[in-house]
Recover the amino acids of this structure.
């Protein structure tokens, strides 16, 4: 069977297959950006914007640190101390655990993921104009939840930093992005297509 442009359009118009195309496009865009970002970061060292990107990372990590310590103190009432951008606190074993909010901890990569995804994914531009910034705020909020969550996780499980940092809360980031995309896809992209 020969696959033609018309056949693909016909399959996409069939409601039974539409979600496969949508999720497929989501993953193509997410993985494409991931590889482009890694190329820009690891191979090109953020050329030609290295100085500006470094300043943005420093600013964003300071913001994340301030938001996270405020949340630990005012929402959870956790006693902690800081040194630079490191948060120290007593864990349940009576020793101290530490979480450092480094520039790499910021949500800048996820912000760029979101912008790239939303700019290239179909949908009405009048809604993208407000939905993209709202998504950036949600991603920043998610990152605060991530840092605070790691701190709270390390209190009972002080030896499981990698599990919290590399698995649980990293997955949470992409689940949030996926859910925001799914909301966009169902309520804005396909709503427009139906008209």
């Amino acid at each position: 069977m020969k696959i033609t442009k018309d056949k693909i359009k016909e399959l996409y118009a069939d409601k039974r297959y539409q979600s496969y195309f949508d999720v497929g496009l989501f993953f193509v865009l997410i993985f494409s950006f991931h590889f482009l970002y890694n190329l820009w970061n690891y191979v090109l060292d953020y050329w030609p914007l290295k100085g500006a990107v470094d300043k943005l990372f420093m600013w964003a990590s300071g913001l994340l640190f301030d938001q996270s310590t405020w949340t630990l103190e005012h929402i959870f009432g956790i006693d902690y101390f800081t040194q630079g951008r490191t948060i120290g606190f007593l864990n349940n074993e009576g020793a101290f655990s530490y979480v450092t909010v480094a520039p790499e901890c910021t949500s800048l990569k996820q912000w760029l993921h979101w912008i790239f995804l939303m700019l290239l994914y179909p949908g009405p531009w009048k809604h993208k104009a407000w939905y993209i910034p709202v998504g950036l705020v949600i991603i920043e909020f998610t990152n605060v939840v991530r840092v605070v969550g790691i701190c709270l996780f390390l209190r009972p499980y002080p030896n499981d930093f990698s599990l919290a940092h590399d698995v649980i809360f990293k997955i949470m980031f992409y689940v949030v992005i996926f859910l925001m995309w799914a909301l966009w896809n169902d309520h804005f992209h396909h709503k427009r297509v139906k008209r």
Observations:
- The first strand starts at residue 81 and ends at 83.
